């Protein structure tokens, strides 16, 4: 299996970009990630940058079990951010979300999520996403509000946990996915707080390479009112099997 992917980050109307991302092949695995920093200028940027750097460096050291590996890395990131914040006052209060995906050469995908950055999977006409670890995500999961109501809820920015937050008990959520003519999309909340699932499906269904789809998704977020940093990583199989079967038959 081979993957085709593209990633892009825009600062929007914010003075700086506190998002960071990864999208690359490391050894036998593809690694994708989005981190959204908290704590204001410099602090937020530092936290998200630390998260993706530590993640990349540790994955490059080798992987035994994908879930165990990235879970241990998450705790390492948390401790490193706390140490950096205690050492340098200008980084006091910094923290970050992190959504990461490891994909092996069979197409097996392990997703970890901490905070309210998000991973979507789209397969066989069905879109699913990770649960946001914030107060609104809890309300949606309990059935007290709908996903539509969550988009404008006043508590949507209150996180349950974040890496580097001294008050957080870090409990990563894990998800399994297998690529089979499907798509994987990772995003910061500047994107998914504004773009509905149905619109994401429409853009993906219209086709195109990941670079084109990524650009359309980011454009849609700003068209729908986002003024935040927007980061999107788009991944698909390089050769979609069903399309190949149709072409072979023709």
Can you identify the CATH class? Alpha Beta
Largest sheet: 6 strands, antiparallel
Please identify which CATH superfamily we are dealing with. PPM-type phosphatase domain
Strand content: 25-35%
- What would CATH call the architecture? 4-Layer Sandwich
Structural class: alpha+beta
Distance between the termini: 23 Å
Description:
This protein has 250 residues and is an alpha+beta fold. It has one domain: PPM-type phosphatase domain (Phosphatase 2c, domain 1). The protein contains eight helices and eleven strands. The strands form two sheets. Strands 2, 3, 4, 5, 6 and 9 form a six-stranded antiparallel β-sheet that branches. A hairpin with a 3-residue loop joins strand 5 (98-104) and strand 6.
Task: List its salient traits.
five-stranded antiparallel sheet; disordered C terminus; Phosphatase 2c, domain 1; six-stranded antiparallel sheet; 250 residues; single chain; 11 strands; alpha+beta
Helices, strands, pairings?
Elements: E1 3-10, E2 19-26, E3 29-38, H1 43-60, H2 66-87, E4 95-96, E5 98-104, E6 108-114, E7 118-123, E8 126-129, H3 135-141, H4 147-150, E9 173-178, E10 183-187, H5 189-192, H6 197-205, H7 210-223, E11 230-237, H8 241-249
Antiparallel strand pairs: 1-11, 2-3, 3-4, 3-5, 5-6, 6-9, 7-8, 7-10, 10-11
Summarize the structure in short.
The chain is of the alpha+beta class and 250 residues long. The protein has eight helices and eleven strands. It has a single domain, classed as Phosphatase 2c, domain 1 (4-Layer Sandwich).
